[in-house]
Amino acid sequence: MRQHRRFTGKAALLLVALLALTATACGSTEEKRAAAPGEQKEQVVLNMYMANTSDTTYMPEVNRRFEEENPGIRIELQTAPVDQFETVIKTKLASGDAPDIFTIFAGTKKDSLVKAGYLMDLSDQPWVARLTDTARETASKDGKVYGLPNRQNLIGVIYNKKIFNDLGIAVPTNWDEFLEASRKIKDSGVVPLGLGLKDQFVTQMIPYAMAPSAIYRDNPDFDKNMYAGTQQFTGSVWEQMMQDYMALNEKGFFNSDVLGTSNDQAMQMFASEKVAMTVTLHGRIAAIKEANPNLELGMFPLPYAKAGESVWVSSMPSLFGGVYAKTKHPEEAKKYMEFLTRPEIAQFYLSSVNSFPAFTDVTVDLDPALKEMEEALKVGSYYFLDAVWPNTVQLVMQQQIQSVFAGRPIPDMLKAMDKAFQDGASMQ
Amino acid sequence: MKRFGTDITFILPAFAVFTLFLVVPVLSGFYYSLTDWNGLNPETRFIGLDNYIRLFNDSDVGNAIRNTLLIAVCLTIVKNALGLTLALGMQGTGKIQRIMRVWYLVPVMLSALAIGYIWAYVYSPSDGVLNTLLEAFGLDGLARDWLGDSRLSIYSVIFVSVWHFVGFTMIIYVAGLQSVPSDVYEAAYLDGAGKWSMFKNVTFPLIAPSFTVNIVVNMIVGIKVFDTIFVMTNGGPGTSTENLSILLYRQAFAFDRMGYASSIAVIMFMIILIFSMIQIFALRKREVEH
Amino acid sequence: MALRERNGWLLSLILALWAVIVLVPILIALFVALKTPEQLLGGPLSLPTAFEWSNFSEAWKKGMMGTSLVNSVVISVSAVILIILLSSAAAYPLSRRKKKWATATYLYFLSGMMIPFQMAMIPLYKLLSQLNLIGKFAGPVLIYIALGLPFSVFLYTAFYKSIPQEIEESALIDGCGPYRTFGSILFPLLKPVTSTLLIMNTLTIWNDFFVPLLFLQSKSSRTIPLSIYSFTGEFVNQWNLIFAAVIIGSLPLVLLFLVLQRQFVQGIASGAVKG
Q1: For A296-321, what is the mean pLDDT?
Q2: Residue C5 CA to chain centroid, in angstroms?
Q3: Cα–Cα distance between B91 and A385 in angstroms, integer?
Q4: Cα–Cα distance between B166 and B90 in angstroms, integer?
Q5: Is A116–B256 a contact, with Cβ atoms under 8 angstroms apart?
Q6: Alpha helices in B33-181 (DSSP H)
Q7: Pick from A297, A255, A247, A251: which is nearest to A275 by CA?
Q8: Rounded distance, CA A183 to CA A176, Å?
Q9: Does C203 score more than 70 pLDDT?
Q10: Euclidean distance between the first and final Cα of chain A, in Å?
């Protein structure tokens, strides 16, 4: 009997310890906030959960301005590294504990969220009419708009102007000129192209940049036919594209050991002028300049075309985010989205991230390095390919490109991509 | 009966937390392996064993199982050999031993995140530390693309994992060795036992529990390893370092196939279970024999 | 000298070699943490020319590391203490009883080591959100306890077996109840294992990234690894700040270990040798 009493004592102690932990030791942030002086009681809190992209760099300032104008709304911004963002947001959504506004990705990537009913239909918002056609398209599913596009991203060749000038190289306008320029640079002892293929997303840059001129300029229905089953990667222009991609490596135009080099290292090599060109997103320009402010940079579309043919650009609107369908504050969330589309706000953030607008009535002064791209965009462009593919294809392609660099035959890669396409399309 | 009641009071708190916060969630996870859940949609369809049938025809799974076993076996062998060696050298309470023990444990204190960052600098092919050092010693021929060569990358990752965690293995051996009374050594020493025979007949039987712990735990950790691969290669180049954990994560959160990912998890669980059973059985027998 | 005499040259060589292999990458981390962004372009092996100690204060401020340090300490300490208490208690009867139920329960705990955590993520999130524990420290603490128990039970069980049963039997005869026997006689004997487990569990929890990422979201409740990750971006990773943050975040663990190291040796002197 005595033992039992003692047990109850000890067990109670443990239980109390556990409860104390649950209840007190760790007051939630909301409680702390509520107690802070000077805040109105009925303030609406908008929770934002954003991937740590360059958008998050200007958001504190934009949010501050929004709160100033709307004292009844407070924004709680939380961010997560891009790598893990999707995992976290999917977990939250599946568990019914979602933020009011969160990052979504353009094109087919957002479709599974639409299908599961997590995204609010924003088609009736006033800003929809001001979107560029491509922006509206990538933000939509079955004719309804589910996200707010905020800027236009480009993939192209970023180059070191000083190296080009010293060697007397003009900006190449077709593939032969591009190869010739690369040879000249290599002969001068500089690495022509810096790539960090250890990071899987880098593997796709060159095919994405090639595809608009190689496929979609002449065959705009390629992806439609893929879905219809009348077109395959196998036996398509892809084989030639991959061969030409690999040829760049065989000719020694890439940095050595390109598979073991990380993107950061490749960018560092570029910033320290060991490399003359790289193929990547235009957003890197700012990052490279930050590492070495003395560089003079330019950017041109990867000229994967024969002489005399037109060169198309790989270009894609990106989405700021979407609104949770079951948010408790739909009006406030929409108000916030609308705030972001105001020309003066859009100009502020577009110049801070150095990007082209997604709205027809907004103009921005961009970095001079982007001037050449502005002209090129008018010729023609096509999306980043994963925006149209089922979401299984991109990751398989990235892995497969690494394997091809390690010796796998190109037809095997295309077969794997075909299979991933069919698998993914059947899931949609 | 009274004793049983007391026993329950000792076990219950641990049992409750463990069951509620790990076992129950995992069991519901296992249920998903019988569905086509994509990890997002509220509705799921019960599809029986379809996911498992698919597993057997998926070449990625075969590749991941091979990589998983290779990593687990290598990690277990190397960590135990090195960990025991370090522990044997670190016996005693002298100052040097104490400093060295802490020193060998320093990597353990770093997060996988930090390890990924640091070793990217070491393995970098162009200006990486390892290749630069090899060249400095005139061993240019040994310089490699450590993470980019798809035949080497898995061993490069294994080495980092050893570097990271061998301190744990060592400290368990140290704890085991220090429970060996020093007069046992002295007696054996006076009997004129040689170093090897002393190790085999005196030291080893006494540290057998540590040995069991280290073998079983390292095998399990080796099969499950995720962080190190995730930060170093994310399974690449290609699928050359993709093990079951990485494949599972990818299927669950990149391909939106939570049901299928759950079936991979079940397979992983089975592999670990089988290995642990064999080991515990074999090692128990050994312990008893001595 | 003394070390070499006792160990022989081969063993000493291995010990020294591994010490160097441990040293080099850590030295690199230190170098990077002391460089300016421009110096980083010189490659990882170049020595920092001017020591940028300000990287540390900048990382501290920008990463709000003061707050995350406190959060990490609160979470790790509560979780580790509870792991030690719960597992040492549970392992005691499990190691002593030769009954079927004891073996079954022991294996039940062990099975926890075999589970891939990713499996449990979504159901766990659902559970914690039902219990209203998202964003509160209790959530991660409870998860860490559940995750830490299997190995701790495993290790305690193994080491209880090396403690002769006569010790507790004589205590029982002397009139000590089972709880006092456990608390004042057995638990002190476990000191070496306890300090091992203290270290191992603290390290795992302190460095864990995923649980806080999922369950603690706001800046004011984030832990050290989340602070470190805050210096990575889509296009720019601030390596010097990342490494400064890594070093700041690891220092408390080094200190903890230095302190426990003495405990560890004492524990052995007082406990294990007599046993």
Answers
A1: 95
A2: 34
A3: 60
A4: 14
A5: no
A6: 50-56, 59-89, 95-105, 112-123, 129-136, 153-178
A7: A255
A8: 11
A9: yes
A10: 65
Mutate which of B2, B6, B12, B22 to disrupt the C interface (most C C-beta within 10 Å)? B22
CA dihedral A346, A348, A349, A350 (to 10 degrees): 70
Cβ atoms < 10 Å from Cβ of C252: 17
Residue B196 burial (10 A CB sphere; 0-12, 13-18, 19+):
exposed
CA distances from residue C258 to B103, C261, C262 in whole angstroms, order as listed = 10, 5, 7
The pair of three-digit structure tokens given for residue B90, joined into one six-digit string: 């670190």
* Chain A residues in contact with B13 (beta carbon < 8 A): 11, 14
Mutate to test the interface with B, among C11, C119, C149 (most CBs of B within 10 A): C119
The strand pairing partners of A381, in sequence order, are: A313
Q: Do C246 and B111 touch (CB under 8 A)?
A: yes
Cis peptide bond upstream of B237, omega within 30: yes
- Tens of pLDDT along A228-268? 999 999 999 999 999 999 999 999 999 989 999 999 889 98
C-alpha span between C269 and B156 (Å, rounded): 40
Q: Are A278 and A196 in contact (CB under 8 A)?
A: no
Buried b / exposed e along C38-53 (16+ C-beta atoms within 10 A): ebbbebbbeebeeebe
CB-nearest partner of B14 from C87, C193, C225:
C87
User: Which range in A200-209, A361-370, C255-264 is most confidently predicted, on average pLDDT?
Assistant: A200-209
**A190 to A265, B106, B182: CA distances (angstroms):** 16, 40, 65
Phi-psi group of C8: left, alpha or beta (phi > 0 → left; psi -120 to 50 → alpha; rest → beta): left
| pLDDT tens for each residue of C158-194 | 888 878 888 878 887 887 788 888 888 888 888 878 8
Å between B146 CA and nearest CA of chain A: 7
Strand, coil or helix: A418: helix
Please give the Cα distance from B286 to C227 (Å, whole number): 47
The one-letter code for the residue type at A292 is N
Spell out the residues 6+ positions from residue A93 whose beta carbon is closer than 8 angstroms to its own.
Answer: A113, A116, A118, B40
Q: Is the pLDDT of residue A19 over 80?
A: no
DSSP assigned state of A216: I
DSSP reduced 3-state for A205: helix
Contact A125, A334 (CB under 8 A): yes
Q: Which residue in the set A14, A116, A260 is minimally distant from B123, CB to CB?
A: A260
Q: Determine which helix (DSSP H) or strand (DSSP E) holds A73, and give its type and residue range.
A: strand A73-80
The pair of three-digit structure tokens given for residue B155, joined into one six-digit string: 């061993």
Kindly state the average pLDDT of the residues B189-206. Answer: 74
Residue among C15, C120, C228 minimizing CB distance to B89: C15
DSSP letter, residue B187:
H
Contact C89, C155 (CB under 8 A): no
- Of the candidates B6, B199, B204, C75, the one whose C-alpha atom is nearest the C-alpha of residue A25 is C75
- The owner of tokens 């392609």 is A397
Q: Give all chains having 3 or more CB-to-CB distances under 8 Å with chain B.
A: A, C
- pLDDT band for position B189 (50/70/90)? low
8 Å CB contact of C41 and A268: yes
Residue A15 confidence class, pLDDT cut points 50, 70, 90: very low
The half-sphere exposure of C40 on its side-chain side, counting CA atoms within 13 A, is: 29
Answer whether A111's CB lies under 8 Å from A390's CB: no
**CA dist A275 to A161, A202, A265, C205, Å?**
12, 16, 11, 42
Kindly list the residues from chain C whose CB atom is less than 8 angstroms away from the CB atom of residue A96.
Answer: 126, 129
Radius of gyration of chain A (CA): 25
> Which chain A residues are Cβ-neighbours of C210 within 8 angstroms?
84
Strand segments (E) across A282-360: 297-300, 313-323, 356-357
- Give me the interface pTM, i.e. the ipTM: 0.87
Q: Do the beta carbons of residue A131 and residue A290 sit within 8 Å?
A: no
